[in-house]
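Protein modeling request. Please complete all fields; requests missing the sequence field cannot be processed.
Requester role: graduate student
Desired output: 3D structure, token encoding
Chains: 1
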Amino acid sequence: MTANAPPRGGTRTLTLDAAGVPLSGLLSAPPGGTPRATVLALHGGGMTAGYFDARAHPGQSLLTLGARLGYTVLAPDRPGYGASAAHLPQGQTLAEQSARIRAALTHYAATHDLGAGLFVLGHSYGGKLALTCAADGFTVPLLGLDISGLGHRLAVPATELPSAHGQGHWRHNWGALRLYPPDTFRTCPDIVAPMPARERAEVQAWPARFAGVAARVRVPVRFTFAEYEKWWRHDEHALTELAGLLPAAPRVLVERQPQAGHNISLGWTAHTYHLRALAFLEECLAGHAVAGTTLPAAA
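Delivered output (299 residues):
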């Protein structure tokens, strides 16, 4: 791993070694000490790691908040984005990305203290990857997962899914502009990126794959649905069904974020959502401390 000088607010750029492929990204660590835990933040399709470091409104950045609360936050550009795009011009499938991310974390953990373990926060496609990585098994202790912008039943027809001509219907990605600070697009010009072809080709397959992936997840999981989420069904029947598809997870929470659109971490309620996600991490840590159990690692 290589790291550069902090570009702003204590957040550093870095490059991870993912089995020979470089993954660029962002890193924020607590000052002068061992992290309480490490948060791996995985961005969605058509985005970059900058999604988790928004600055259009004070308090939006997950990287800044996490470090202030004693956590290291590591947000890589997923395979096919950032520095890896030149090596993987067509991107990678979900299974291939899982192997790359898990290899990168193994390499990172060899020289960095993770604290109590790893907590994975994934948005949209990054949520698919978080669940897949957990199902495939990390070689480092895994505390839990926090997923936003992802369900298991699509709420849109196939014709509105991301295509080679765009990233899908604009209003499904964002929702009403009033849900986001007015400077969002001016202050975050580098957060949007083309969705690689191989990744895009798998979009329709997720509903059929969800149950098989979810059944192999053995850590606590929290799902958050924005009030104005448009891509995924989040009616009570769908949410009850979703929670029932994770039988091996010791705890499954399904919650809603009021006044938010699909891209929660860029909206007015980003700070609230991040606080709730990190509160869930606190609960995962406390649960292991009370039970005196060993954190689960690879399956």
